[in-house]
């Protein structure tokens, strides 16, 4: 039994050539993930969350330039692994639940064929065994009359059922790591809660590591072991969930938390917190703290790169202020 993390990433950088110059979409991402842990990556749309997950799975477009000092999965270097090796890992030991199942499931094939193919690509099983496994997992993810669903096509299912099919497909080979990219975005609130509860229960049952990408901090508070707050391609604050919610230190993290209504603190009809301004362009040279244009505590040194600072318990943040920012916002 090794104590090494299942997934270890250091210095992950993604650059995309555009007509206006190089887009620095992801810049210097570092994190570790152990077996059975849940890491939640949060941030605004366009911050680089989904690109980070695609980089881990080796599913980036051909023009995207990926670099990292380390990107390993259980001892396998994901940067130098051959295409054949990556295909062996994907769907088997590493799986991904995509944001929109209707564009991820093939409309020309039945649900049963797509589920069975996932297992037969990685295991020496018969078609009948693969279909039996498909029925088992469809039932596990809460789909009734599972066997009859195998002959249906994706368009014949509701959004919630398609998302459950995607989860079943991701679990066909009992992966050690599952990446869920905003898996409940297109669903109504009731179905969202069911899908999240299902993911958490299956993760604990199978002792999987999970990366959950979301912009919903309410979800993060319920399921995360670790939190990584992403802004403009950088991780601006990382640490245990209890530390991030109990002592948010980066001004962006604090701004996100101030936007959440809290019963007993926010009066009905009162204005919620907001973060003024917009995310800066990441095309061309990127200098200084990317949040400085939206931060009310900007000072001169913010025009230079913000240092990475360390708090006890693995709680890190990027800011020129050595002890973080004032805490009045959350207690007012």
Set down the secondary structure blueprint.
Layout lengths: L6 E12 L2 E13 L4 E5 L6 H9 L7 E3 L2 E4 L2 E2 L5 H7 L4 E4 L3 H4 L6 H12 L4 H14 L5 H4 L9 H13 L5 E5 L7 H18 L2 E6 L2 H7 L2 E6 L2 E7 H6 L4 H8 L49 E4 L3 E4 L9 H4 L1
Parallel strand pairs: 3-9, 3-10, 7-8, 8-9
Antiparallel strand pairs: 1-2, 1-4, 1-5, 5-6, 10-11, 11-13, 12-13
Helix pairs in contact: 4-5, 4-7, 5-7, 7-8
Q: Describe it for me?
A:
With 332 residues, this protein is α/β, with parallel strands linked by helices. The chain has a single domain (7-93, 173-331), classed as Rossmann fold (3-Layer(aba) Sandwich), CATH 3.40.50.300. It contains 12 helices and 13 strands. It has helices spanning 49-57, 83-89, 101-104, 111-122, 127-140, 146-149, 159-171, 189-206, 217-223, 241-246, 251-258, 328-331; strands spanning 7-18, 21-33, 38-42, 65-67, 70-73, 76-77, 94-97, 177-181, 209-214, 226-231, 234-240, 308-311, 315-318. Strands 7-8-9-3-10-11-13-12 form an 8-stranded mixed beta sheet, with helices on both faces. Strands 1, 2, 4, 5 and 6 form a 5-stranded antiparallel beta sheet that branches. The model is unreliable at 326-332 (pLDDT under 50).
